[in-house]
């Protein structure tokens, strides 16, 4: 046994001590268990339709807020990105297409699932795919179909919308 020699491991060489690799103990903490609260933003300028939509979603576990037009919606999204966006197309100041374009162009919001609800579109409108719309609902749309679409999008979560992506191709819901 070599006397007087001791192995030394400087802390700085210990990979487990790297400050960037610290793990939070949250996984074992029962209080941190998944509580799924889905935040839905509804962009709708029509007061009556907005009221109907909000009333419908308030009976669910969704946390819902409303924007009165595209400008208002974009401000809300930049402040705090929702989990799902449900937007009308015909709105003052900024319409739904311009809103979707802005949302998809910003990396902080690019992958948010987006559903469109509109009376001006036909189900096969090519702009839905071009702009990266995940679900297209045509007014009037039965409540259960709106709910079903939003629930599917919430379950799907954020996902990319590049041209090569087919992640949400199956979700272009067309009401009967
Ligand atoms: Zn999508």
Automatic annotation (TrEMBL):
Residue ranges, compositional bias (Basic residues): 1-10
Residue numbers bearing the 4-aspartylphosphate modification: 88
Region (Disordered): 1-30
Keyword vocabulary terms for this entry: Phosphoprotein
Highest taxon of the lineage: Bacteria
Span of domain Response regulatory: 39-154
Stretches with biased composition (Basic and acidic residues): 11-30
PROSITE patterns referenced in this protein's UniProt entry, alphabetically: RESPONSE_REGULATORY
InterPro entries from the UniProt entry: Bact_response_regulator, CheY-like_superfamily, Sig_transdc_resp-reg_receiver
The name this protein goes by in its record: Response regulator
Species this protein is from: Actinoplanes sichuanensis
Lineage: Bacteria, Bacillati, Actinomycetota, Actinomycetes, Micromonosporales
